[in-house]
């Protein structure tokens, strides 16, 4: 009998405790439910959020209020870490909703670290490309470095100019040459700014036109040059005044001419082959200033002055050295990426950091055979 009595008492106590806890959790007892500190959601003041105390005191089960009666906040947004709590938050129906309260009911961007969700942090470096707040540094340039306007004289004969001076252009590795021509239609002189080629000097004559001689510094249509000619400052389209092979030390090579479509194939400094129309002009020779990058900068001050007149691209901070909010590679107790550095092509722009849609990674091993196109 004693054992049965003890068992009965333990069962009664257990039922009482379970009933008390369940009622407290269900009715929102302050000892077990969310505290007022947890109830202070974004956009709500503490006095604006009240628990339905009348129903809690009377013991009646809370009912879902209608849309006309109150504005209920989703329990998923309100109960953080308290699964199973059914709490109703109600604001004064006579008060107009605030903008923050309206936004709370809309789809919000997830907060960082909430329920394991990773949120977009700040706008990363790759998202700021092709736009920004920095002033362009083109106002340092002396003049646009381009060929003469394609006129009747160049299309059918040639014109002669003289190099007056060779100047430095801020932010450009190649020097520029001031070439003076006589105006073909008015009694005046025209000064053009060409990209200087190796071997050009002040006082040298420069000939431009279809019938100009094949000499260093002269400008001719590519159709008038033999195969193997070294050229620079090539027009991609006839009359655009120069677009290809313009950097210091760069040059292109004429591969061949096509009589069918009248185009000329050239090999660009990158090794790629391109076909341009035969009437596109080019300068004979190599762009001056070659070997510029062979000399090391050696110190940060020189790099500062180099990029100060170019663009805002130096110094460049590594992604692993940033905070998690600034870069996908940021954060951690030591500098490491923490995940694969490859990223999908269709990933959101805030995740585009690392190796974008890489087919393969790592060093190339073994002998590589160059395939001619």
From TrEMBL:
InterPro entries: NA-bd_OB-fold (IPR012340), Rib_uL2_dom2 (IPR014722), Ribosomal_uL2 (IPR002171), Ribosomal_uL2_arc_euk (IPR023672), Ribosomal_uL2_C (IPR022669), Ribosomal_uL2_CS (IPR022671), Ribosomal_uL2_dom3 (IPR014726), Ribosomal_uL2_RNA-bd_dom (IPR022666). Residues 121-208 form the Large ribosomal subunit protein uL2 RNA-binding domain. Residues 53-76 are annotated as: Disordered. Keywords: Ribonucleoprotein, Ribosomal protein. One of its GO terms (biological process) is cytoplasmic translation. Transmembrane segments: none annotated. GO terms for cellular component: cytosolic large ribosomal subunit. This is Uncharacterized protein. It comes from Wallemia mellicola (strain ATCC MYA-4683 / CBS 633.66). The lineage of its organism: Eukaryota, Fungi, Dikarya, Basidiomycota, Wallemiomycotina.
């Amino acid at each position: 009998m004693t054992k049965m009595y003890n068992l009965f008492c333990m069962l009664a106590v257990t039922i009482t405790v379970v009933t008390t806890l369940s009622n407290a959790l269900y009715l929102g007892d302050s000892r077990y439910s969310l505290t007022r500190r947890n109830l202070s959601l974004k956009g709500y003041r503490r006095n604006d959020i009240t628990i339905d105390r009348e129903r809690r005191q009377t013991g009646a089960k809370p009912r879902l209020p209608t849309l006309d009666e109150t504005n209920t906040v989703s329990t998923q947004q309100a109960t953080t870490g308290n699964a199973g709590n059914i709490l109703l938050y109600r604001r004064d129906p006579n008060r107009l909703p605030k903008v923050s309260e309206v936004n709370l009911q809309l789809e919000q961007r997830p907060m960082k670290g909430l329920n394991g969700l990773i949120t977009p942090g700040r706008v990363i470096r790759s998202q700021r490309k092709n736009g920004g707040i920095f002033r362009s540094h083109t106002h340092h340039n002396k003049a646009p470095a381009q060929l003469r306007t394609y006129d009747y004289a160049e299309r059918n004969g040639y014109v002669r100019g003289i190099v007056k001076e060779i100047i430095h252009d801020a932010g450009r590795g190649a020097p520029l040459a001031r070439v003076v021509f006589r105006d073909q239609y008015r009694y005046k002189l025209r000064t053009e700014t060409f990209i200087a080629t190796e071997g050009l000097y002040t006082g040298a004559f420069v000939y431009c036109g279809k019938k100009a001689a094949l000499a260093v510094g002269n400008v001719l249509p590519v159709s008038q040059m033999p195969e193997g000619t070294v050229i620079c400052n090539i027009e991609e389209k006839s009359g655009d005044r120069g677009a290809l092979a313009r950097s210091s030390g760069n040059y292109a090579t004429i591969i061949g001419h096509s009589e069918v479509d009248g185009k000329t194939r050239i090999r660009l400094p990158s090794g790629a082959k391109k076909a341009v129309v035969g009437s596109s002009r080019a300068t004979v020779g190599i762009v001056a200033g070659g070997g510029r990058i062979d000399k090391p900068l050696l110190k940060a001050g020189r790099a500062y002055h180099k990029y100060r007149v170019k663009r805002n691209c130096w110094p460049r901070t590594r992604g692993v050295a940033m905070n998690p909010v600034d870069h996908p590679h940021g954060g951690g107790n030591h500098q490491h990426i923490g995940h694969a550095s490859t990223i999908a092509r269709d990933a959101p722009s805030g995740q585009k950091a690392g190796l974008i849609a890489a087919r393969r990674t790592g060093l190339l091993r073994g002998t590589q055979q160059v395939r001619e196109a």
